[in-house]
Specification:
Blueprint lengths: L9 H8 L5 E4 L13 E6 L4 E2 L5 E3 L42 E9 L1 E3 L2 E5 L1
Antiparallel strand pairs: 1-7, 2-5, 2-7, 3-6, 4-5
Length: 122
């Protein structure tokens, strides 16, 4: 386990990649959350989509995964995380995620301003 960041075995990670843990279709402006003890591990955009500026994409760890609350991997933001890189920007309402794009991470909440997506649960 490199730095304790891997959460799954190779087989478990493969299962998640195939959506075998579940998924959720989201096309409303209401906030969506995964089941208890789970997170969203991948998001595929079915339309050009924009997250709500605050609480739109909430990461399990905002220092590690792109989100709307802080700039991940950005030591210059005053976080106490070390060796996490620098230059990561916070997602805001000016960022549009294009149709067909898939992003990976660990998120606890998704709230869209516009668009449609499938969020995979892990």
């Amino acid at each position: 386990m490199a730095g304790g960041k891997q959460k799954y075995t190779v087989v478990e990670a493969g299962n998640i990649g195939f959506g075998q843990v579940g998924s959720m279709f989201i096309d409303t402006t209401a906030a969506a959350s995964p089941p208890s003890d789970s997170v969203f591990v991948a998001i595929t955009f079915l339309e050009d989509s924009v997250f709500d500026a605050s609480g739109g994409l909430v990461a399990e760890d905002q220092d590690l995964y792109a989100n709307t609350e802080a700039g991940a991997h950005n030591e210059s933001d005053g976080s106490e995380t070390t060796n996490q890189g620098s230059g990561g920007a916070q997602i805001d309402a000016g960022n549009t995620f294009p149709q067909g794009l898939t992003i990976f991470g660990r998120w606890t909440e998704i709230d869209l301003t516009s668009g449609a997506l499938i969020a995979y649960i892990g």
